[in-house]
Amino acid sequence: MAFSKTESYLYSLQQFGIKLGLTNMRQVLDGLHQPQEQYPCVHIAGTNGKGSTAMMLASMLAANGYRVGLYTSPHLVTVHERCAIITPNTVQRRNITQKRLEAITQKIKDICETHKPPIPITFFEATTAIALTHFQQKKVDIAILETGLGGRLDATNVVNPWVSIITNIDYDHMQWLGRTIPAITREKAAIIKPHTPLITAECKKTALKVIEKACKQQQAPYHHVKPCSRLPQPLPGTYQGRNLACAVGAMDVLRQRGFKVSIPRMRQGLRSCRWPARFEIVRTTKPLIVIDAAHNAPAFKALKDILVTQYPRYRIHLVLSILDDKDRDAMCRILVPVVHTVTVCRLSNIRAAHWKTLQRIVRQHSDRVATAPNVTQAIQDYLSHPHDRDDMLLITGSIYLAGQAKSVLCSKRSCI
Fold first, then answer.
1. Which residues are CB-contacts of 14 (< 8 A; sequence separation ≥ 6)?
2. Is 3 helix (H, G, I), strand (E, B) or coil?
3. pTM of the complete model
């Protein structure tokens, strides 16, 4: 994929890696005159489900007539996806335009380079500042932001939300967040602000104890929600019921703060809700082709549940790639035994696990393992053979792999 000068600059900021802390953001936002203070927002943390929760909430708010800013990460295909406007009433997603991306990026670049000393802004900090500014310029009624990593020192934790959400807590990013559930929870619970309601669907007692303590310290109203049946669940998987409960809980809080919403329009919004690469069926004719962005062990458990309960007769071919900092052994142990064959795909990402290492792990659970130099070849190899109606091609293991698969299977010209 060819990148513009602006995108090349943004990606060059990856040289600074992951840098947890709020100093850079505060300095940049000072230069931008604090755009995040111009609109209310919802702040979402959690191990999994942040994006799904954000999209369901955004869809319900937009269906009720509100212009919603949506900041999610990482993106699947282009960086523009991270900063979107969900249009009022029509519930259409409008990603940031190239022209606006260029203008805001240049402004941020100038601020960083002229600051004394220069601000070594990271890629995620830059995209966060872009989103906050974009939402101000588009005069959103409300913005919904998901954290990138953790919460306490995440670049998004510069906002003062009207409501905070912690979807769930599980093991991921342990090298930064800690190796126990209480430690991970403390990092994520740091998004809780004074007197700001907190919504969570987490069930682990060790996590809830930390969340409840943080709420008491911040005098923040605490709301524990459970899946409900009063509204349609738009996304597949039983776990999405908990994400929907978080979104509905946030709607209740916003209604109390003056947002005018109705159940019929909330239903309308959920019917319009689309969240790509979450058990997304991109082809229904044989073979069935599914892209899923599951990228850690808890997400693989949820994915396995869908396969076992809803597709028990399918013969599944798995195209797999996993980032090096993930628990590859646990992920393969969960998913590989329920599939028929596996292709280990090389991924063009510096964080990707070496394909030989991943192949060796996969072979501990299956003797039907192939390799491919890229996802395009993996898909072509599989589709070159005849298939029955109960065959499925499943592409998963990394959001980056899901994005590359989307580029191959769903181009602007066609969807295979």
1. 122, 123
2. coil
3. 0.93
